[in-house]
């Protein structure tokens, strides 16, 4: 399962990179607006990488914020694209929210496993 989540996280990162640096005409569009699209994409990226790299979540989150900044700066050289501080703030902030969601999911799953282990053991004799 861990390998699948890591594969999905990197596939999602590649898709976001293409959507960010690729030709504007090939960028997917939705009714969420630009900030909504960015928020959804980067919450999913943060969640996926947060679940994929549980033991190094803080380090991966820090690297993710740095790489999101690099991705935003690379738009200076991408035709038809523009780098904006607002985009970086939305992207980095929502990626961090995704990492927080991953932490919450881990906490809930740990509690669930602990409770089900207690109830499956039955009464002590």
Write up this protein.
The structure is a single chain. By secondary structure, this protein is mostly helical. It is 76% helix and 0% strand. The protein has four helices and no strands. Helix 2 (33-52) runs antiparallel to helix 3 (57-74). It is elongated. The mean pLDDT is 89.
Summarize it.
With 125 residues, the protein is an all-alpha fold. The chain contains four helices and no strands. It has helices spanning 2-21, 33-52, 57-74, 85-121.
Report the helical percentage: over 70%
The average pLDDT value, as a whole number, equals 89
Morphology: elongated
Indicate the proportion of strand residues. under 5%
Q: Measured on Cα atoms, how large is the radius of gyration?
A: 18 Å
Number of strands: 0
In sequence order, what are the helices and strands, one letter per element? HHHH
Structural class: mainly alpha
Low-confidence stretches: none
Largest sheet: none
Separation of termini? 36 Å
Q: How many helices?
A: 4
Protein topology:
Elements: H1 2-21, H2 33-52, H3 57-74, H4 85-121
Helix pairs in contact: 1-2, 2-3, 2-4, 3-4
What structural keywords apply?
125 residues
């Amino acid at each position: 399962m861990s390998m699948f989540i890591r594969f999905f996280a990197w596939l999602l990162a590649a898709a976001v990179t293409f959507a960010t640096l690729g030709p504007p005409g090939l960028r997917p569009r939705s009714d969420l607006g630009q900030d909504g699209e960015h928020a959804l994409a980067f919450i999913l990226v943060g969640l996926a990488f947060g679940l994929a790299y549980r033991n190094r979540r803080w380090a991966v989150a820090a690297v993710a914020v740095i790489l999101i900044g690099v991705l935003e700066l690379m738009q200076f050289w991408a035709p038809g694209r523009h780098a904006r501080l607002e985009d970086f703030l939305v992207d980095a902030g929502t990626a961090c929210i995704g990492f927080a969601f991953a932490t919450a999911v881990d906490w809930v799953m740990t509690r669930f496993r602990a409770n089900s282990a207690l109830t499956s053991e039955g009464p002590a004799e």
